[in-house]
């Protein structure tokens, strides 16, 4: 799946991830080729267990592929050391998880500033940036609240703010609305729309067609393989787009 | 009955499922129970050989001495005093200087008959009894000098052959010998700046000669002292008899007083071991609290299931407590067995008494106290998490919701200004303050023990005769200190590793999250290790002061020791102890911290 004009920001070639040995070997991601352009939003859809999250982890350097290449901004990231990967996650990638993964003992603003502190920013600069981001996601009034005092949607908005803290090249979101009710989903949806409009590169793994509909491209995945791609701004090229009523 | 069976079954099954943790628990409690057992059996173990010696030598109930011949009349009066059943005649005693193979020592030479005496007939353990020109040396003194039957010695320049080596119950073994010469004696180290009379004997040993030989050693008959051994109609009244007749020209000592002096070493060893046992008990509580805490976290779901199928909070608490009570009982039994078997190596009651200590008898009170301490350690460490688990919400427990971490706002704010490893470390530490306290206590207790060991070791090395210890006895005390050191350090090491591992497990999620946000594995492992090292630094500092000072002061107060005689560790030694502790803790914790930080992020998240 390489339908991006110019040099892609994120590029995967022959990406494979295997678990287990011998008879029990499972191929979670199988020979995936993918290009994501700068400022593009790509939604990856597919049934549970098809390898979407694994692919996302490989793209963000959270996990290493068994085979294949991943490049970010023209630089290979599949063969670099742990330290360099950590630096990459700190500066170039922002993650949003389905379960939010906020530190329960830190307030919303402390959670958001954590990435900046890890990146070595001064406490004052980190706090200022965190407050700006919370205002951006509509949680300025909840900055001093602990996660336990926030609703699911608010927690996810904090997580999104945290992902944006270091102005990453790409935000990778894994089922960002998977644990949210409809109202909260709508909040997050608007947030992603806003990011998209602002030119933020986004790769979103989702089951939610409404989230996927905000993307430039919707890619379908099954059994570790990318099976279909729908270009939402330029018309669908596959079955899923037609099924979702998004085709031409 | 069914409920008890259920509780036992669940406890045993869970212990079998987690064998490594069960073994660690067992070791921690056993370290304390073994040391406690050693301490408790030591007294009896040392007292027994004295009783055996008393029986084998027809030991006296009271020993009376008189300086100069003028005191003889006093002794004769004493022999006729009410309550006296018999006596062996006053024997002459002369001070002398013994030389052998380049070694010189003061002695009290007692003149005895060649024929056996009805009261206090020293038991020959090597060679034969006295004859003209022959000397019999008290066994502990012979041991210290390295002389055997057949060797040649000189007394005040005159040659004598060592005809035998013997033990007696009429005097504590060397170097604790009582003084029966008119010139006076001093045992131990002479305080600086204090001059003693030239003729006063220093750490004298005991030898027996024929009466004629003793008289020939004395410059004039009037300078001889005399000693007489008495049997009373009621040996239990010996101390009262001695107290009533003490004074004037007479020196009177009861068999209880001699026993007290003879077992001084055992008493000191016992005090050291008992203090060690309490320190180890504290360490065991710290160790257990961490182990139990982390096990309870793993058992949340099990607790939920038990409650969901109808288990009451009481039953849940009973199941959780039962596991540790079972471990404590096994640890108590093992500690009693190991302590009893190991005791003889620490109860070399000196060569001056009949028979080795052998395997000391196990008394009901010793077994009861050791078992109670083991159970106490287990219950103290378990009761809070057990009750907390029993009271938890069934729904939360079924969902396996972890206990929420603590928030320490000021620390979070301050840590934002620190480098990444310290930032993460201080937040890791702040999540579980109780665990940090346990870590600090564990290290403080260990360092306090090390402080005391340093002081005692230096003391034994520089002033071996202080307190009346000879080389062999110093070796025994060094064995005691070695046992202390090994068990203390082992348990502290286990604690450091266990606390780190519990921290690693507890922080799996936050560590993975930090890595997802860009922290390197090295930063995360450094943070996990630093979260232990910082409390270790605090613990080591507290362990030196006030911990070590207070512990040493307590030992001094209990033993009646003179703290002026000891050399306290210098500042650089204390700094070295603190630094070494921090380095050792860093080394010990680096492995589990490293393993924890290497865990793949995606697996955890």
From TrEMBL, chain A:
Protein name from the UniProt record? ABC transporter ATP-binding protein
Which Gene3D superfamilies does the annotation name? P-loop containing nucleotide triphosphate hydrolases
SMART domains listed in its UniProt record: AAA
Give the ABC transporter domain ranges. 10-248
Report which superkingdom the organism of origin falls in.
Bacteria
Q: Which SUPFAM superfamilies match?
A: P-loop containing nucleoside triphosphate hydrolases
**InterPro entries this protein is in?**
AAA+_ATPase, ABC_transporter-like_ATP-bd, ABC_transporter-like_CS, ABC_transpr_LolD-like, MacB-like_ATP-bd, P-loop_NTPase
Q: Which GO terms describe its molecular function?
A: ATP binding
Instruction: Write the record's keywords in alphabetical order, separated by commas.
Output: ATP-binding, Nucleotide-binding, Transport
Q: Which Pfam family, giving just one, matches this sequence?
A: ABC_tran
Automatic annotation (TrEMBL), chain B:
Give all residue intervals belonging to the ABC3 transporter permease C-terminal domain.
276-392, 485-594
Its membrane topology:
Multi-pass membrane protein
Q: Which UniProt keywords apply?
A: Cell membrane, Membrane, Transmembrane, Transmembrane helix
The answer to keyword Transmembrane helix applying to this record is yes
- State which residue ranges cross the membrane: 20-42, 271-292, 367-387, 436-460, 480-505, 526-559, 571-591
Would the keyword Calcium be found if you checked this record's keyword annotation?
no
Q: Where in the cell is it found?
A: Cell membrane
Return the InterPro entries for the record: ABC3_permease_C, MacB_PCD, Macrolide_Exporter_MacB
Name the Pfam families for this protein.
FtsX, MacB_PCD
Which domain of life does this protein belong to?
Bacteria
Q: Where's the MacB-like periplasmic core domain?
A: 25-177
The family annotation for this protein states: Belongs to the ABC-4 integral membrane protein family.
What is the protein name stated in its UniProt record?
A: FtsX-like permease family protein
The record lists the organism as Sphaerisporangium corydalis
